[in-house]
Design goal:
Oligomer: heterodimer
Mean pLDDT of chain B: 92
Distance between the termini of chain B: 37 Å
Radius of gyration of chain A: 13 Å
Largest sheet of chain B: 6 strands, mixed
Number of helices of chain A: 0
Radius of gyration of chain B: 13 Å
Low-confidence stretches of chain B: none
Number of strands of chain A: 11
Strand content of chain B: over 45%
Largest sheet of chain A: 7 strands, mixed
Order of helices and strands of chain B: EEEEEEEEEEE
Order of helices and strands of chain A: EEEEEEEEEEE
Low-confidence stretches of chain A: none
Mean pLDDT of chain A: 93
Strand content of chain A: over 45%
Chain lengths: ~110, ~110
Amino acid sequence: DVKVTQSSRYLVKRTGEKVFLECVQDMDHENMFWYRQDPGLGLRLIYFSYDVKMKEKGDIPEGYSVSREKKERFSLILESASTNQTSMYLCASEGDSSYEQYFGPGTRLTVT
Amino acid sequence: QKEVEQDPGPLSVPEGAIVSLNCTYSNSAFQYFMWYRQYSRKGPELLMYTYSSGNKEDGRFTAQVDKSSKYISLFIRDSQPSDSATYLCAMTTSGGYNKLIFGAGTRLAVHP
């Protein structure tokens, strides 16, 4: 069974703080993704990575950066958190030969 | 206009009803169509996957794709309270790193 874990289920941060969200997958998948999910907007892609140290911008990368130093770990960084980054953040992984993305349980981030 | 449109609901049905969930899309290059199910406080999980046009059946679930109308559907027969969840359609073209475009999700409640 593929397992994707995220470092926190709930997180409360203050405006201006630097925030790290971590994601780990155990299936040796090449591709990893970070999404945010907001009511009425569905899932929107922030960044994705198709290999270690490789990253590509998604549809809404502004205000975010990512790091992938090891194949199994993909981190999302909010350099200076703002209230409009309050959201549910979902990490996913995917094998190269598959169209199925496996999601973690999500981190609900509140920025006050 | 969004690339993928999905009615957010909520949709409330009695147990045993046939449920129809739908998405429309604008990009004729989409070739792969998926339905994800997301229970409350969980990440989405893949329910059905269809390539190009046609029908696919899996137990009580049937996925239909009509590329000429740019319309996809998910039917649930004999709906159960355990089917209560948010259903997200997703689609992608044949190339790239499987960048999925998601609908906003339809919240379904099946009451006993």
